[in-house]
Amino acid sequence: MAPVISALNPTQGPAAGGNQVTISGSSFIGATAVRFGTNSAAFGVVSNSQITAFPPPGSGAVTVRVTSPSGTSNGVTYTYVPAPVLTSLAPGQGPTSGGNPVILTGTGFTGASTVQFGAASAVFTVNSSTQITATAPAGSGSVAVTVTTPGGTSNSLTYTYVTAAAPVVIDLGSHFGPTAGGNSVTILGAGLTGATAVHFGAQAAGFTVVGDNQITATAPAGTGTVVVTVTTPGGTSSTGIGNPYYTYVAQPALTSLAPDTGPATGGTGVTINGTALTYTDKVFFGATLATFAAISDTIVLATAPPGAGSVPVTVHSPGGTSNPLTYTYQ
Questions:
Q1: What separation in angstroms does the CA of 40 have from each of 29, 33, 56, 138, 324?
Q2: Which value, in Å, is the radius of gyration of the alpha carbons in the chain?
Q3: Would you give per-residue pLDDT tens digits along the chain (330 residues)?
Q4: Residue 91: DSSP 8-state
């Protein structure tokens, strides 16, 4: 009876060949040949239902068959996978304590099984066939970073562990901003030179390092109160020192004025009703600033300045400028 192949394990391997493949099936006793495509493979018959084979070099998908004096088996597909290639690491250095993200760029990352920083394995996520995000393990000195897939192990790139102190965020030029982001925020601190990332909470921000004590960042969109952190090769800043908190403020919205008319001489107390009024920093009657007090998130008490005709009343806060409501001078 001709041999029958039921399964291969694994079903893929490196283009260089030489890896071990277990062929499961039946009627293997007396097998005289195992072929991967048209190429013969070294093999050993373990039992009537199992063969251990060592694929020859190859490429793409090929058909595996077993031949014995009784005939040739059915074919089962085996795929040769190119070895992964590493082209860059970002950043190429980090703290000896590890824990920082490192972006690996290259090709052939699909199916990656391990990422090594020297002898230490790293936790990682395959983002695509060309990118992996790894978390650097603890280490020291310079180590070789490699990626292993069914296609083999990549070339190595050097990652250097440094002992520089972690950066410190002491204060922010502004602790409030709109939920839409896009505003400039000055970050003040120490050890900021060489910064590789700035985050507002979990959101990455664009930034420019002005000096060792200052970074100018562009706030990303967000909500609530978040911690602003800076990452350098020495590590990531913590909340133990200074005031790194940043609060996203919703745009104020006005619903009514009471009263909405008053004398041209001004001096009328006007209750401004709306939402997101807590952080009000300016009230305008037309182009004229009014004195005011923010009583709650829904009420601002303003004193109408002198004016004439009908003017738009608006409220400004770190969240932006509100819609206008009309106030009429009589």
A1: 18, 7, 7, 45, 82
A2: 34
A3: 999 999 999 999 999 999 999 999 999 999 999 999 999 999 999 999 999 999 999 999 999 999 999 999 999 999 999 999 999 999 898 888 898 899 999 999 999 999 999 999 999 999 999 999 999 999 999 999 999 999 999 999 999 998 878 899 999 999 999 999 999 999 999 999 989 999 999 999 999 999 999 999 999 999 999 999 999 988 899 888 899 999 999 999 999 999 999 999 999 999 999 999 999 999 999 999 999 999 999 999 999 999 999 999 999 999 999 999 999 999
A4: S
Q: What is the CATH number of domain 253-329?
A: 2.60.40.10
- Match domain 85-162 to its CATH number in 1.10.10.10, 2.30.29.30, 2.60.40.10, 3.30.1330.60: 2.60.40.10
Residue with tokens 């738009």: 312
Given a contact cutoff of 8 angstroms between Cβ atoms, the answer to whether 318 and 280 are in contact is no
CATH topology of domain 168-249: Immunoglobulin-like (2.60.40)
> How many beta carbons lie within 10 A of that of residue 155, not counting itself?
14
Exposed/middle/buried for 71, CB within 10 Å: 0-12, 13-18, 19+? exposed
Q: Smallest Cα–Cα separation from 322: which of 247, 255, 225?
A: 255
Residues 65, 51: Cα–Cα separation, whole Å: 11
Whether 168-249 and 85-162 are alike in CATH topology: the answer is: yes
CATH node for 4-81: 2.60.40.10
Block residue for tokens 């998130």: 297
Query: Looking up tokens 């920093």, which residue turns up?
Result: 281
Q: Which of 3, 22, 1 is nearest to 73 (CA)?
A: 3
